[in-house]
Every structure is written in structure tokens, then in C-alpha cells.
Amino acid sequence: MNAMTSRQKKALETREKLLKVSLDLFNKHGFEHVSVEQITKACQVSKGTFYTHFPSKYDVILEKFKELDSFYGSVEKNIDRTLPPSEKILMLYQEQMKYLTHVVGKDLLRTVYTAAMTNQVEQDHYLINPQRLIFQMINAYIEEGIQLGEFRQDLEVGQIQTIIQRCMRANVYDWLIHNEDFDLSAEMAQFTAVVLDGLKVKK
Fold first, then answer.
1. Options 1.10.10.60, 3.40.50.360, 3.40.470.10, 1.10.10.410; which CATH number does 6-60 get?
2. Is the pTM for the entire model greater than 0.70?
3. Which of 25, 104, 182, 192 suits 19 as a labelling partner, its CA being 20 to 30 A distant?
4. Could you tell me which residues are beta bridge partners of residue 200?
5. How many Å apart are CA 192 and CA 91, to the nearest integer?
């Protein structure tokens, strides 16, 4: 693999600086109150430089948040394939909540949720994008659960996934508005287990 040139290193450093400064400003002032001009002034670069690295300020958030999907890929490899599909979903969410708590943190999540509620985000928000790896994984577990007779067959895969997604977002939202005594992993496990129980075939 060829080593980076000094120009490539400089470009990477600029990108990282734009990313960090943007997120800091979003956390401090709120996503909707920060302009690209404010970001570039703080970084002492031109607007053209910003748009070379990010199509919009929303894409700054996406860039950081996409790290999650790499994490989900590693989690998937460690999930026991012999577990019931509902247990796989619980395990996936458990690992996700640990990652959000200890790696991503509340500040970035607040920024992401705030951005999702502004009219400045025209495309489908990352939080509900069906192409995300986590949703593809959950879809596969749901389909498996239906085939194995664990999940109800009167609901479509998409309907079940929507319900399960809302569990995740509801718990994360509660975590963001509560103080530090809110245990995201524990609350998620309890809440999602109850919901999944309602989606199972009654025997």
C-alpha cells in the first residue's frame, strides 16, 4: 500500500478538523443554528474546502454516525447462530446500547436527533434509512423468526421491524432526556423483551 503524500495527509487533517469543529459547534449551539460559514471560519478554511469534504452540514453527522454500521458488522459475527431470532435481536440491541453509551455518547446522539427534527434534512434521515446494516440484520432475524414459527405471521416483516425500531428510538430518546441514573442497556433489554414477547406466536 502506497504511503500518503503530504497533500493527502493535509486533506485528511482538514477533514478531521472540519468534522470535530462541526460536531462541537452543533453540540454547543444546536444543529439548526450553526451555518457552514461559522464552521469554516472556526476552522479558518474556505466554504469551498468544506464542500470538497462534505456535501452539506448534515453529511458531517452522517460521516461520524456511519461508524456505527462498521460496529454492527463486528457484532453480527459474534452472535451465536443457534440462538432463537428474538434472542439475536436482544443481543444486537444490547451491544448497540453499550456502544451508544460508552463510545458515541449523549452529545452526538442529541445532535443527531435534533437534526432529524429540522426541515434542513430533506432526504430520509439516517435514523430510519432501510439500507443501514442494523435494519438489514433485524430484517433477516425477523424473517428467520417467522420461518421458524417464533414470530407471528399475521404481520409483515416490515411491520415487525418498524415496531422493533421504535423500541430502539424510544429508549434512546428517554436516555437523552433523563439524567445519568438511566441505564440505557438495562432499560432497552427490558422494554424490547416485552415487545418481542407480544410479537411471538402464543403457544
1. 1.10.10.60
2. yes
3. 182
4. 151
5. 11
